Amino acid sequence: MAEVEYVNLSINGQAIQGRKGQTIWQAAKDAGIFIPIYCYHPKMPPLGACRICLVEVEKTPKPQAACTTAIAEGMVVRTESIIAEKARGGVMEFLLINHPLDCPICDKGGECDLQNYAVDFGQSTGRFQEEKRHLGKALELGPTIALDRERCIMCQRCVRFGSEIVQDEGLIILERGAESEIGTFPGKPYISQFSGNVTEICPVGALTSRTYRFKARPWELKHTPSVCTHCSVGCNIEVDTRLGREVVRFMSRTNDAVDDGWLCDKGRYGYGFIQSEQRLRTPLIRKGASLVPATWAEAFDFIITRLNEIKGQYGSQAIGGIAGTHSTNEELYLFQKLLRGLVGTNNIDHKHGSFGSVPGAAIPAIHTATIEGLETAKLIVLVGANPSARQPIVELRIKKALKAGAKLAIIGPSIKALDRFAAVRLPVALGQVEAALHASLALLSKNGTAKGLQSEALKNSLNEAYNSYDAGTGLSAEVQTLVGLLEGAERVTFLYDELTPDVKGNQDLVATLARLALATGQLGLPGVGIGRLVEDNNSWGALDMGITPAFGPGYSQTTAGLSYAEMLGANGQTPLKALLVLGANPVSHLQELGLSGDAITNLELLVVQELFMSETAERAHVVLPSASFAEKDGTFTNTEGRVQQIAAAIQPLQGTAPDAAILLELAGRLGADVKTRNSQGLFEEIARTTQLYKGLSFNNLGQEGMLRPLEREAQAENLQIPDWLQNATRPQPEVLIGTANAELEQALEASGKAQS
Question: Are 677 and 664 in contact (CB under 8 A)?
């Protein structure tokens, strides 16, 4: 890493050191000196359009824009001099010439930079007597955004967000000079899955959210730090509640390591479910063909009585548990502890992708890629993954890395938002992704550039595979291009989708990918190497907490139980008599798993903890209404293994309860001595008993969370190469990677749409 060079300068008489290349504004901010900004945004290049940041720089003929002027050795800057204040006041006067005096009804009123700076830097009276410009109000730019053109100060933040960050069609500037205004391309509404960000970066009330207009005033709001639950990225948010009771909006809470300050629209606007009229609000017990309301005591009594009867008659192995991947780590840990420790069964699972021949203990160890690490990668390889559809903010991070000089390779179906950025694309169907990796590994071995392959059996196997490929159609130009990129890149990140290994033909995709990472010297490198893009916000947490029959919490060894599919049964039959379901809807996956019939209807006891009435809940004997993430405390583990806290923004909806409270009550009624009843205590127990989380605590997670210790300590030079990684791989001469033709392209396009 290059040594940082520093520059000595003075701001308002204070001697400071800034990093060479910084602007005056950046150096002042680091020193705690305030300079107002409108057009400048820390995540975008400087523009210098608004001039509100004008400062006096000694030995310059006129005030300078602090956001565009680079610092220099010996520079003397004054932000509060008569010259600077007069210049800033002039800018403010021009900005207010046509600005409407509608602060009392503006959604931005109370949190508006123009309003605040007008007080700090403007004049008490205006000299402009002519009539202000009048334009139509609340112009609907698209499904999420409304524009009040009179309020716009043409800072251009929104326009540059589209061109610099999303790098796609967004908002544009129409007309010129005094007639300039923000708009869309002719005949095209503003449709983007990141559109809501422009309302947040708008420094005035020009761009507002159509879902929030006239809902609340800023001083009525309570801001609770939390984490988005709509995908596995774990973007940081603030849950804004009106009078502490009603959720009125989600706002971004910048965490540079995760979200870079942005939110996708699903994460920003997806809060309606929290106070939906469709939420379950009372326990239900089946009586005959119907589910009827019951008290909590009646529900608990029914569950415990039937569990004890079934365990006594059929044994503990007739009982199983399926959990969802939106529950907190604490709830998942309690769920498996209740089933394993009190019921005595290892029939525990959740819906997740497979790992093939990779041993359980190695699963977290080989996944060292991080979201922030994408910016240090020189090559990013997407392996049967579509982050644009499933982890949208990862798309923005990839685009940011590409702007910085990284290259992109795509293996698998088309990704509409990223195809045009790819240096190479291997257009293979999802079922041929592992074959493409295998072919690339074989070519690396043949070229003699595979760095970490030590086993002669493995090398011979790869050479055999290469000869098989070469004897057929030969390795395509795309494979050769990819291998060339792999050979030349210093830091490589491989991102694969957790469900891709479940597609026929990819049975050992993760192990093949690990060998490719080993061969290119990336296995175990902190920040890069292999990354697993999981589906839900706590999919990793479910594995970490042992919600699987293969291993217990922290990937510890345990006696194997029934898997997800085995518990659901085939041909309408299941080996279980009782099933506990925590925040999951397994009935919706029967067809996907290739299971015929509905074995769940044959259970003697089905207990479902849920927010809404699902297909599984409709078949239940007992339904327990649970609280949403905004109504409880706990932690989630995101797609890179970062553990982050959530906090209750509002009280649980009347009649509901947090899942942890429900599980603790069940545990107590089953005879457990329950000593810990809060999330902090449960997390401390996880950290004590689970090596993977050792050293973490509620107190040190902070506002930005922490990577699991295993990821933080991973070092390539200290990595022990296990035997399973050096084993010979299966040659795949039957799968030939050829150049895509028109027919294949059409099939891939259809496959890409299906995946999205």
Answer: yes
CB of 348 within 8 A of CB of 718? no
**Residues 153-207 pLDDT 10s:** 999 999 999 999 999 989 999 999 888 999 999 989 999 999 999 999 999 999 9
Residue 58, Cβ density class (10 Å: 0-12 exposed, 13-18 middle, ≥19 buried): exposed
Residue 423 C-alpha from the chain's centroid: 25
Contact by Cβ (8 Å): 324, 584: yes
Whole-angstrom distance, CA of residue 46 vs CA of residue 53: 12
Strand ranges, E, within 30-171: 54-57, 64-65, 76-78, 139-140, 145-147
Residue 100, pLDDT > 80, answer yes
Q: What letter represents residue 272's amino acid?
A: G
- What is the rounded distance in angstroms from the CA atom of residue 456 to the CA atom of residue 462? 10
Neighbouring-strand partners of residue 573? 570
What are the residue ranges of helices labelled H in 238-295? 265-269
Residue 23 contacts residue 70 (beta carbons within 8 Å): yes
pLDDT for 570 beyond 90: no
DSSP-assigned states of every residue in 419-482: GGG-SEEE---GGGHHHHHHHHHHHHHHHT--SS---HHHHHHHHHHHHHHHHTT---HHHHHH
Q: How far apart are CA 557 and CA 551, in angstroms?
A: 5
Three-point CA angle 481, 484, 489, nearest 5° = 125
Give yes or no for a contact between 222 and 244, defined as CB atoms under 8 angstroms apart. yes
Residues 6+ apart with CB under 8 A from 568: 574, 586, 589, 590, 593, 595, 599, 600
Q: Look at 207 and 601; give whichever has higher pLDDT.
A: 207
Handedness of CA 504, 500, 492, 418 (dihedral sign): positive
pTM over 0.70: yes
How far apart are the C-alpha atoms of 472 and 497, rounded to whole Å?
29
Place of tokens 């925590």: 582
Question: What six digits make up the tokens of 676?
Answer: 């810990």
551 pLDDT higher than 90? yes
Considering only CA atoms, give the Rg of the chain. 29
At residue 320, the 3 state secondary structure works out as strand
Residue 705 and residue 255 in contact, taking contact as beta carbons nearer than 8 Å: yes
Helix ranges restricted to H, 217-263: none
Which of 569, 566, 680, 578 minimizes the C-alpha distance to 338?
578
Structural domains of the chain ordered from first start: 6-96 (3.10.20.740), 129-275 (3.30.70.20), 284-346+561-711 (3.40.50.740), 360-536+716-729 (3.40.228.10)
76 DSSP β-pair partners: 10
Contact, 571 vs 596, CB < 8 A? yes
Q: What is the DSSP string of 161-179?
A: IIIIII-SS--EEES-GGG
| Segment 382-433, tens digit of pLDDT | 999 999 999 999 999 999 999 999 999 999 999 999 999 999 999 999 999 9
Which of 4-8, 603-607, 673-677 is least confident?
673-677
Residue 713 has pLDDT above 50, yes or no: no
Strand, coil or helix: 642: strand
| Selection from 617, 622, 648, 624 nearest residue 634 by Cα | 648
DSSP sequence for 651-704: PPPTT-B-HHHHHHHHHHHTT------SHHHHHHHHHHH-GGGTT--HHHHTTT
Asked if 373 and 593 count as a contact pair (C-beta separation under 8 A), the reply is no
- 716's CB contacts (< 8 A; 6+ apart) are 521, 522, 523, 524, 525
